[in-house]
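Question:
When you can, review this sequence-structure pair and walk me through the tokens.
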Amino acid sequence: MSTRRAMKKVSTAGARRRAEQTTRAESARPTPRPASSSLAALLNVADAEAAARRAMPRGAFDYYAGGAEDERTLARNRDGMDRWVLLHRVLVDVSRVDLATTALGAPIAMPICLAPAAFHRLAHKGGEAATARGAGSAGTLLTASTIASTSLEDIAVAATGPLWFQLYIYKTRDIARDLVARAEQAGYRALVLTVDTPMLGRRERDFRNGFKLPPSVKMANFEKYGDQFERWNAPGGMAARVHELMDHSLTWETVEWLRSVTSLPIVLKGIVRSDDARRAVDAGVQGIIVSNHGGRQLDGGEATILALPDVVDAVAGRAEVYVDGGFRRGSDILKALALGARAVFVGRPYLWGLAAGGEAGVLRVLDILRGELELAMALAGCARLSDIDRSLVRPA
């Protein structure tokens, strides 16, 4: 019996090693912790959203959930998914589906990454550190926001996966220059310059709710610059303070300036036009995120899933193209990959997971999306990401 047990143990260990060696990304992926019964009951992103709504104060929930003005762009991001339909292949061996890829050279376990979002501590006391651990457990990339409630250095300490740093350019460029240096020192792999926010969109839910940051939520990256927290809750609120800080005169020269102060790859977030995409590549950026800021900026804008093909065609392989905005199902993500996106960034879904269960909730939502994408690929006859092309989609 002891010999059989030993042989079984050796066989099991060997199988485990082979499984762990399937991809570089998966080999580094930490073992996920078992989800609690409440998290295990979440079947999809909508379930996580409902759980977050129950867990969060209304003002904080609406700060995440809301869009600009009449929220037409917000709705159009979701509605746009139905403007494309999938055409599946048959009689393809999909006994093993491989989702592993890279983002600007960094191995990730799946083409699902975490978009920048402000103030994670509105959702959970663990904040961005909990999100970073959840992303690392899922084997994927987190983009940390300039307007984080945890410092970029503390996020880096918590992270076990690759990190990008999202950057706003303020009127005082010395702050932006210092943030870039801090990100480089902390080990971030790319800078994501948000280019669709010369001014802040009018987010009427926040006005109706009289939204203010609670005392426990700080502008962590700005504490060293002497920015007083009280000013964010002064009359006029956070929106007025952001408007005061933002540099409304940014041009393409800003991209040149950023290239002059960093050696990190630069990704522009907020592109929806083919002419802007060509100009971005001509300016030397390494990546583009097709984005309308989750419907939180210009209302009446185009759905990102509809803008994506023109941007991909304009870039013509000279930079990596990503997309965010309204992705809630694995089949949505499959459509974006078929239209040429290298990966999809999600924002609200992981925030719902964070609110529902902290680090474990983030991991749960990412595992849900991963499972849905894997199934959608198998049902569409795609065993590898390289099998996905535009023949899989057509306009509805």
User: Anything to note?
Assistant: The chain has one domain: 44-395. Residues 1-34 have pLDDT under 50 and may be disordered. The longest strand covers residues 266-271. The radius of gyration is 21 Å.
